[in-house]
Design brief:
Blueprint: H1 6-20, E1 24-30, E2 43-48, H2 53-68, E3 75-78, H3 79-84, H4 90-98, E4 100-105, H5 116-140, H6 145-169, H7 177-187, H8 192-200, H9 216-232
Parallel strand pairs: 2-3
Antiparallel strand pairs: 1-2, 1-4
Helix pairs in contact: 1-2, 5-6, 5-9, 6-7, 6-9
Amino acid sequence: MSASWRPAADRLVSGLRGVFGERLQSVAAYGTHVDGHDEEPLSCLALVSSITTADLEACARMSHGWQRDRIATPLILPEEEFRRSLDAFPLEYGEILRAHTVLFGANPFANVAIDPADLRRACETQVKSHLVHLREGFIEAGGTPRSVGDLVTASAPAFAALLRNIARLQGSELSDRAHATREGARLANLTESVVTDILSLERPSSVKATDPAKLFPEYLAAVEQLARFVDTWRG
């Protein structure tokens, strides 16, 4: 997270402290912004000891200020609820654990661990949903190259997230977004060239290095391979 965002983050923390007082236990930034993409909104998790309707109303009054500061509406959770929901949202919380910056209080992720069995089930759901989405999207595109290309491009970020989750499933503790993504591809034995081409679409430049529509057959095969990998994973 760049220093230019610190004033906005400090205003967020100050506002939350004004609402929750001593009930505010920790605030942490996470997401693509922490990975170095300063143009993205700042995402934050705030853990509190309790939260009431009055607290929500007070936060609602600050929402326009957060929007002006390009801060996404913070995820505000009671700490006990956060810890008890790790099994329900292992992918989402796992991504926060991978890369975060503590803005206030103690590290909320100290002694926090995600059960590998919960992670495997979530990965299976994610990869098979992605596979179904690609197949259905291709049919709906009616064979039109532009529509197929749009499908491939739009799904590239989800594919990258899949690879990071595969890396996490294998026990990787890499915090760097790009390295974790590449590690997942390596562990699943995906062809490096198709991974490189798809990942290049995640943040496309004005000049495309490849035609996304032409990538579809290899891309689909890569996702099918990911599904097989998760199916046979035994830890």
